[in-house]
From TrEMBL, chain A:
Pfam family name, one: Proteasome
Entry's family note: Belongs to the peptidase T1B family.
Protein name from the UniProt record: Proteasome subunit beta
Organism placement in taxonomy: Eukaryota, Fungi, Dikarya, Basidiomycota, Agaricomycotina
Listed InterPro entries: Ntn_hydrolases_N (IPR029055), Proteasome_beta_3 (IPR033811), Proteasome_bsu_CS (IPR016050), Proteasome_sua/b (IPR001353), Proteasome_suB-type (IPR023333)
A GO biological process held by the record: proteasome-mediated ubiquitin-dependent protein catabolic process
Quaternary context: The 26S proteasome consists of a 20S proteasome core and two 19S regulatory subunits. The 20S proteasome core is composed of 28 subunits that are arranged in four stacked rings, resulting in a barrel-shaped structure. The two end rings are each formed by seven alpha subunits, and the two central rings are each formed by seven beta subunits. The catalytic chamber with the active sites is on the inside of the barrel. Component of the proteasome complex.
Source species: Rhizopogon vesiculosus
Function statement: Component of the proteasome, a multicatalytic proteinase complex which is characterized by its ability to cleave peptides with Arg, Phe, Tyr, Leu, and Glu adjacent to the leaving group at neutral or slightly basic pH. The proteasome has an ATP-dependent proteolytic activity.
Predominant cellular place of this UniProt entry's protein: cytoplasm
Cellular component terms per the entry's GO annotation: cytoplasm; nucleus; proteasome core complex, beta-subunit complex
Cellular location(s): Cytoplasm; Nucleus
SUPFAM superfamilies listed in its UniProt record: N-terminal nucleophile aminohydrolases (Ntn hydrolases)
TrEMBL record, chain B:
Subcellular location(s) per record: Cytoplasm; Nucleus
Organism of origin: Rhizopogon vesiculosus
Cellular-component GO terms for this entry: cytoplasm; nucleus; proteasome core complex, beta-subunit complex
Family matches, as PROSITE patterns: PROTEASOME_BETA_1, PROTEASOME_BETA_2
UniProt keyword terms in alphabetical order: Cytoplasm, Nucleus, Proteasome
GO biological process, one term: proteolysis involved in protein catabolic process
Origin superkingdom: Eukaryota
Self-association state and partner proteins as the record states: The 26S proteasome consists of a 20S proteasome core and two 19S regulatory subunits. The 20S proteasome core is composed of 28 subunits that are arranged in four stacked rings, resulting in a barrel-shaped structure. The two end rings are each formed by seven alpha subunits, and the two central rings are each formed by seven beta subunits. The catalytic chamber with the active sites is on the inside of the barrel. Component of the proteasome complex.
Gene3D superfamilies on file: Glutamine Phosphoribosylpyrophosphate, subunit 1, domain 1
Family: Belongs to the peptidase T1B family.
This protein's name: Proteasome subunit beta
Summary of the function given for this chain in its UniProt record: Component of the proteasome, a multicatalytic proteinase complex which is characterized by its ability to cleave peptides with Arg, Phe, Tyr, Leu, and Glu adjacent to the leaving group at neutral or slightly basic pH. The proteasome has an ATP-dependent proteolytic activity.
Automatic annotation (TrEMBL), chain C:
Any GO BP annotation: proteolysis involved in protein catabolic process
Segment forming the signal sequence: none
Gene3D superfamilies: Glutamine Phosphoribosylpyrophosphate, subunit 1, domain 1
Record's protein name: Proteasome subunit beta
Cross-referenced PANTHER family: METALLOPROTEASE TLDD, PROTEASOME SUBUNIT BETA
UniProt key word Thylakoid: no
Pfam family, one: Proteasome
UniProt KW keywords: Cytoplasm, Nucleus, Proteasome
Claim: Lyase is one of the keywords in the record: no
Main location: cytoplasm
Lineage: Eukaryota, Fungi, Dikarya, Basidiomycota, Agaricomycotina
Role, per record: Non-catalytic component of the proteasome.
Organism: Rhizopogon vesiculosus
GO cellular component: cytoplasm; nucleus; proteasome core complex, beta-subunit complex
Localization annotation: Cytoplasm; Nucleus
Length: 208, 253, 283
């Protein structure tokens, strides 16, 4: 029995044109037994940064609180909001502190970062459970359905998708991937982050 | 650190008669055609043994078999299936029908229930009623007829993509319309090619080359698909089903 | 994801230790658990001598006196194969004048890595086969294609009896104007390619061979082919601890088969003293 597969769940993030999206299923399980179909594992960090925490459910709660604490400390000390790049490194170093007794979480981050000219640039990243960062230009995936997410995303994703098209792409990718994964599914939620609003939708999914 | 208890009682391990040779296969059935494809890389561990080892084989003018898993078992299995089909030809003076080949394959696989052929089989072709068909098997012979199936190293990458693009899973048709039950050949070929380029991108055991077999029902033409580069006809008779193969490159890294 | 750092970076098929450098009971197994191998249940005829709970036909066999890499490439006029003259006993360089390239019939050479006694048995059965074929006097001669098919069936049959011939074989030949080069191993796995290498050669020499040969099979001359193989054998001698600087090259072309006398590799070791941890250290 793998600890990474105890509770199940998957997260994916994608880059679009001046927007990013992050999505996850809502299942919490105990191995094959489904426990909850409304388990949140994506959390807002700032107005423009979201983090998804697939993996061991108890560590989801712990890490969410840890990140909240560290982001608050950063905001107080720096007197400004944390940028997604900075947050990614915060996540990475938090996980690496526990290099030989890790949290069993593989975080996925999505956000818009400020450019010097005052615009916004899409940013996504993911790490493994000990904090090895992966800055991808297209999409990042994690969780029990990661292989399936990779396969579908590689087939559906294309560059420069507008917000609504990106929503459709990430939703289709997630739904079709988790439908082939026994440990993921039971509902899904999508967040699309644009420069002036965040679109959050819960999807109608297969519940078997 | 060597385990001291195991030194005291030498633990004996059986010779492992199996290995995995990577690669992926896939088949899609149309209304009056069938497409069966596989990559041509053969690997063991992190080594590429060869960039060209076929996994897809023409059995008759209306049946094509794709085998994936342990290559030595796969080659032996195809050899034995071909032998049985030849005996059938000698006894009945005709080619075995597709659904009969499917049952033959299940019997041959189950005959080795306690020392299995470590092979996933996908059989594609044309049924006696002229419809395109795909049969998929597990190593010990469980099988079913389907419209599409992926197997092998990148099964988990390709199958959900096929669910979406072939079965239109999670797609809602516009009001008053419905999804097509069967897709046209050019669409199917693009989906096959996209599936393999995606699998090659994300799976180290997939790549080098792609072989796509196309089986056409009696009287059906390729219309519109002749222009595809590197297509070659393999048909042996001139009044029945027709078999074609398309060979393409995949990334070699 | 495997979370145990001690398992990282190991070959995925750790069960196959081509050189038997670890005694079997000490060898760590880190590969994936193969449910198929574990699921194999066979009727047994007796029990192991050392462990009465293990059926005798499941006793783990291992190679004893072993040969290392065999290399082969296609070139303009035919095929060329190389193997050194060493047969090791574990880490001991036991026999240093062993021929690992063997001619079969008039068109084929077979080269072997792995267990040398099994290889001698293969030579014996191929000799019997050749005698049978010649006795028929029907004008048929065994070419490389036939030898390959025969060997692949023998190797697969023996693995299916759970009693393998512990070898990796390369089969090279030239008949009816066609080059032939193939691989067969103890599992009955077969394949062909324009460059082939067994044992450590598959890791060390194969990349060099592919770079030198792929796409140039019809251009490379005999001299160039010999140089490519010699250079690869030299690299193997530097890096493979179970290799020897004495080797042979077999050439198979329209002119027939010729296996060279043993040759010495010219090697340089002056660089060694510059490598920290290799020669005498100044600091």
């Amino acid at each position: 029995m793998s600890i990474m597969e105890l509770n199940g769940g998957s997260v994916i993030a994608m880059v679009g044109k001046d927007c990013v999206a992050i999505a996850s299923d809502l299942r919490l399980g105990n191995q094959a037994l489904g426990i909850s179909s409304s388990f949140q594992r994506i959390f807002p960090v700032t107005d423009r940064v979201y983090v998804g925490l697939p993996g061991l459910a108890t560590d989801v709660t712990t890490l969410r609180e840890r990140f909240r604490y560290r982001v608050n400390m950063y905001t107080i000390k720096e007197e400004r909001e944390i940028e997604p790049e900075t947050f990614a490194h915060l996540v990475s170093s938090t996980l690496y502190e526990h290099r030989f007794g890790p949290y069993f979480i593989e975080p996925v981050m999505a956000g818009l970062s400020k450019t010097p000219s005052g615009g916004y640039k899409p940013f996504i990243a993911a790490t493994d459970l000990i904090g090895c960062l992966n800055f991808a230009k297209d999409f990042v995936v994690a969780g029990t359905a990661s292989a399936k997410l990779f396969g579908v995303a590689e087939g559906l994703w294309e560059p420069d998708l507008e917000a609504e098209d990106l929503f459709e792409t990430i939703s289709q990718t997630l739904l079709n991937a988790v439908d082939r994964d026994a440990y993921s599914g039971w509902g899904a939620i999508v967040h699309v982050i644009t420069k002036d609003k965040i679109i959050t939708r819960t999807l109608k999914a297969r519940m078997d | 650190m060597p385990d001291m208890t195991s030194l005291a009682h030498p633990q004996q391990r059986a010779f492992n008669p199996y290995t995995e040779n990577g690669g992926t296969i896939l088949a899609i059935a149309g209304a009056d055609f069938s497409v069966i494809a596989g990559d041509t890389r053969q690997s063991e561990g992190y080594s590429i043994q060869t960039r060209y080892a076929p996994k897809v084989f023409r059995l008759t003018d209306r049946a094509v078999l794709a085998v994936n898993g342990f290559a030595a078992d796969g080659n032996m299995f195809v050899k034995k299936v071909k032998q049985r089909l030849e005996w059938y030809r000698h006894a009945h003076a005709k080619d075995m029908p597709l659904r009969a080949i499917a049952r033959l394959i299940q019997t041959m696989l189950y005959a080795r229930r306690f020392f299995p052929y470590y092979v996933y089989n996908i059989l594609g072709g044309i049924e006696e009623d002229g419809t395109g068909a795909v049969y998929s098997f597990d190593p010990v012979g469980s099988y079913e007829r389907e419209a599409c199936r992926a197997a092998g190293a990148a099964q988990s990458l390709v199958q959900p993509f096929l669910d979406n693009q072939i079965y239109f899973k999670n797609q809602v048709p516009a009001p008053g319309t419905s999804h097509p039950a069967h897709l046209p050949l050019p669409t199917v070929l693009s989906i096959v090619i996209d599936s393999f380029t995606s699998a090659t991108e994300r799976h180290i055991e997939v790549g080098d080359g792609l072989e796509i077999y196309i089986v056409l029902a009696k009287g059906r033409t390729l219309h519109g698909t002749e222009s595809i580069g590197g297509m070659q006809e393999l048909t042996t008779t001139d009044d029945g089903e027709r078999v074609f193969v398309v060979r393409r490159d995949l990334k070699k890294d | 994801m495997d979370h145990f750092p001690t398992n990282w970076g190991r070959p995925r098929n750790d069960a196959f230790d081509a050189y038997a450098t670890h005694p079997i009971h000490q060898r760590p197994y880190n590969g994936p658990k193969d449910t198929f191998a574990d699921g194999v249940q066979r009727t047994q005829s007796g029990w192991s001598i050392t462990n009465p709970f293990v059926p005798s036909d499941l006793v783990y066999r291992q190679p004893i006196v072993t040969g290392s890499s065999v290399l082969a490439i296609k070139y303009k006029d035919g095929v060329m194969m190389a193997a050194d003259n060493l047969a090791s006993y574990g880490s001991l360089a036991r026999f240093k004048d062993v021929q690992r390239l063997h001619q079969v019939g008039n068109y084929t050479v077979i080269g072997a890595g792995g267990d040398m006694s099994d290889f001698q048995y293969i030579q014996y059965i191929l000799e019997e086969l050749s005698i049978e074929e010649i006795s028929a006097q029907d004008g048929h001669e065994l070419g490389p294609v036939e030898i390959h098919e025969y060997m692949s069936q023998v190797m697969y049959a023996r693995r299916s009896k759970m009693n393998p011939l512990w070898n990796s074989l390369l089969i090279a030949g030239f008949k009816d104007g066609k080059r032939f080069l193939s691989f067969v191993d103890l599992l009955g796995t077969t394949y062909t390619a324009s460059t082939l290498a067994t044992g450590y050669g598959a890791y060390i020499a194969q990349p060099l061979l592919r770079k030198a040969v792929e796409g140039k099979e019809d251009i490379i001359t005999e001299e160039e082919a010999r140089k490519i193989l010699e250079d690869s054998m030299r690299v193997l001698f530097y890096r493979d601890a179970r290799s020897l600087n004495k080797f042979q090259i077999a050439t198979i072309s329209s002119a027939g088969v010729s296996i060279s006398d043993s040759m010495q590799l010219d090697t340089t070791w002056s660089f060694a003293e510059d490598i920290r941890g290799y020669g005498a250290q100044t600091q």
